[in-house]
Specification:
The structure is a homotetramer. By secondary structure, chain A is mainly beta. The first copy, chain A, has two domains: 163 residues, Jelly Rolls, CATH 2.60.120.580; 72 residues, Endonuclease I-creI. Chain A is built from two helices and 21 strands. In chain A, the strands form four sheets. A nine-stranded mixed beta sheet of chain A has the order 1-4-17-6-15-18-19-21-20. The first copy, chain A, has a six-stranded mixed beta sheet with strand order 3-5-16-11-14-13, with no helix packed on it. The radius of gyration of chain A is 19 Å and the shape is globular. The interface between A and B is large, with 66 and 66 residues.
Chain lengths: 299, 299, 299, 299
């Protein structure tokens, strides 16, 4: 196993079949620094155009369409002392007529304290100072999509992309369906913290150092999957929320079938034990996770 | 404070302005036995027509339209050794074309062990025996709706109703907007356990003994609210999921405003700390909860 | 056949199983004057509370649950020289962020010229005077719903209600599923004219004289149906639009099955010849019509 | 003005910034033959992979991002004696539980009679022979999208794409927002006829000869627009239907503003005179048209 320190020479605003910026063996670790959603790096310098610029693509030798890319998230560490958010709820997460009252979508700056593992908002309206614990995560990552598509890093689909799901943090393993030779992995748009739904349109956007182990498996999946210490989960990316939930649930049924559960057994288990999380309800495609405690899985 | 042991002479399939079956003082406790969603009682006898038959209405002396009914859920205890569920995912929670493969929606019987606090499915397809911990909850409760409406216990709205949210269990306090003199509280359709979304169309449906303390407050809310030991939450009931989420989020913004947070402060707090839960994605109106850890509330 | 001149003593804000205000024989004609959505009558006097007050209920002797009520709309004639509308698009029919720019929802008064059969807006912003041809229609009508429900005249469901579909005008026949003895027909909320979707939240709201022939048929339908000189149509009432469309399409498939078309034949016909109309995209339940030219029906 | 007879050497499954296959001057006419959605040409030979293969891209000299491409559809003529459709309603256009009953999605062959201008289904289940009048249209066309995206011809967005709207036929003018130098126009997937919504997932799919005049204008639009002899219309492409309708309505408001109508005037006009059409309710992004009779436009 090799550890690669990957310093991008350029960033990308689409996930697509592009020439690899780095090629690794299955099982290698990649350490890289991501810039924030607006293209600011760890020094606060504007190094790239806004819009979720991605590090990558990273090719994994031997990965072929129909395989699955396994991404073990080893660490996500904010590398800047500040992060930024938007100061107003998105218009689509409140009642339509209420949207008329929303404040401007100004940018607000949070202080990130890596020792205390907190983020603090210096100015926060009537709320006084607001301090929340960090929970770093990767906002946008995935692989080159199928059929020659180049999909904007504003959105997400079967290939992953801008899912903004807070459980994609350190300790989580993610899987993506490989659709291009080499898989072509991209990552970026890390958040120091984010609520469900990304309902102000941002997490706490900041530069991060990220370490991932990349490997491929000779099996096929349709939608992204994940595993934390306690749970497994599947991801659906679509509008409306109900369709995202349908994709996630259907992928979980497929996963349970691989474990030997028929549709009746899967229905019973999910019916009484499933958990749903909302990744984002802001991007062009929303993200829903279908999650299950590993205690209830067949042995 | 008085404790009333309420034995219904009849049940109801709508929440409406009906003659009270019991009248209590604000602050009184009511203990009552609910029958299950199909009208089976604790002995397994069919005592009423299926369709979420409700105990009630219970009038609270002095409650007026514009007030808020506070319902402290003191206990929800399964009173039968069995519960039942449906054996197939609902067609609307999987991809539309996948729905063609779903098994029949047979009824399955779970054994409820009150000592072990578990539910066990005797027959469960390829899964062998499935045992899950109990987490009793009230599936359907609320007050008479406004404007002379009589709303089916199949669905839900501002008045509450069939929300099927698993956090409506013992220890939770719920609030409902009073729309009729006396508030006219109804409850029923308890579940020994239920996954998010009620995606097989049922929780583990069983008879329960329920104790609630009922009181009213001279303040107004628009949508149901709740509080657990750790969190506060607001409820939106509507289709599609996005609209349910909009109602819940807007109600939470109103609640935070009552605590002194303006729209910018509320946006910052919710943006980075909110949690969303899906009560049900099965009934005519879906239920979404907007939830917030009380640690982050202004003091 | 008898013609009844029905003068309501009271109006209703729910469709429900209420004591009949008039009882007629199957095949009788009822002539009645409706007041407008805000309760103003043909003289411009406020005679009832706002919110789509309904004339009725009218019982049809012999109609039983499971039957179908046939409503032939013989005439709908504005009886006042003015009508009113709202002056702003509803927030839910524009892009969410655009909603912040919408003007206030002021009331605007149109002059109705019954000789010229036109409506003219005296003041219309940058548009100068706006004159449009009348196309009178019934905004809200239907029957008592099932199961003791009392459904607000703000919304609609299987029983009909506030559908705001412009093809429910003179010459159209509508059918509703009978759910209570006597059917219990209600009508009101007539519009002198309305665009698709009722996207300002109103048509041109005015008092009307309406004549309908009411009769029942010994057959069952699930959702409202209609027939014009050229087309047949079925109605779905639900949120979101896709669900309203699903109900309407499914009901049309059932209707074609009654005419002898199996699912393959119905798929071919609808696939290449169906038309969809949007009744309203404003009320709590939206309305979609699935429409088919009678030329293509089997003989 | 020049007329180009364009014979593609290759087809494309994405709309993207690809090297032009043909370059024309603004105002030139292009005549070209499209193959059908499955890659069958006018002789019934399989010449390309299925999935809406596109002719193009065609560059228009001088067109720049921010300009608008004008496409006058001069003719769309089926060039094969047969077309094909699917024999079952899509699962998402019927009630979810009803989807279990749908027949297989077999392919059916229609006879196209260019003299009679009809399409006839040889075998059509219980319906006997079905003959419908031709109404040829372009299913998928548009320009290279912004930001280096390559968008599948299965779907649609601001750039156009797979809209499946029956009013995109001969005599209609369409406009698209130019996002890449030269505009880069693509077209294909023509239908001899199609119902609203493309609810079996196809129109009558066939090869066509198409003539279009291409020119660019120095003005900006956000979503596709169109004009027929009687109407103007705007297009929204998104899921769910409500969002597609929101985009279309908002674009129409912008168009009316260009004609001098402020938001109040536009609200009044659209509120009482708008028509909505559903292009497709089948593709990943649905298509809704917001349509207005030109009689009501300001002079």
């Amino acid at each position: 196993m090799t550890t690669h320190n990957f310093v991008p020479a350029a960033y990308h605003h689409v996930l697509a079949t592009l020439p690899p910026a780095l090629t690794v063996e299955s099982g290698d670790v990649v350490v890289t620094e991501t810039i924030d959603a607006n293209g600011w790096d760890k020094h606060g310098d504007k190094v790239w155009k806004a819009g979720n610029p991605m590090n990558g693509p990273i090719a994994i030798v031997g990965a072929q369409p129909g395989d699955t890319l396994k991404v073990e998230i080893l660490s996500v560490t904010p590398s800047r002392a500040t992060g930024w958010t938007r100061a107003a709820l998105a218009a689509n997460v409140v009642e339509p007529e209420f949207a008329r009252q929303l404040p401007p979508r100004d940018r607000a700056i949070w202080r990130i304290d890596r020792n205390a593992q907190t983020a603090t908002l210096a100015h926060s309206g009537g709320a006084g100072q607001l301090t929340l614990p960090l929970a770093p995560m990767i906002g946008c990552f995935g692989v080159a999509p199928a059929g020659g598509q180049a999909i904007s890093t504003a959105t997400s689909a079967e290939h992953g992309g801008n899912m903004d799901y807070r459980r994609f943090g350190p300790g989580t393993t993610a899987w993506f369906p490989v659709a291009a030779p080499g898989a072509l992995f991209f990552l970026g748009d890390c958040h120091a913290l984010q609520g469900d739904g990304e309902i102000v349109g941002t997490g706490i956007e900041t530069a991060c150092e990220v370490a991932v182990r990349l490997s491929f498996e000779k099996r096929s999946i349709v939608w992204p999957r994940g595993e934390t210490e306690r749970d497994i989960f599947t991801i659906g990316n679509a509008r409306p929320l109900e369709q995202a939930l349908q994709h996630a649930t259907t992928e979980m049924v497929r996963w349970l079938a691989e474990m030997g559960l028929d549709l009746v057994a899967a229905s019973h288990l999910l019916g009484q034990a499933v958990r749903y999380d909302i990744g984002n309800v802001y991007d062009p495609a929303y993200t829903v996770a279908c999650r299950l405690n590993k205690n209830w899985l067949p042995r």
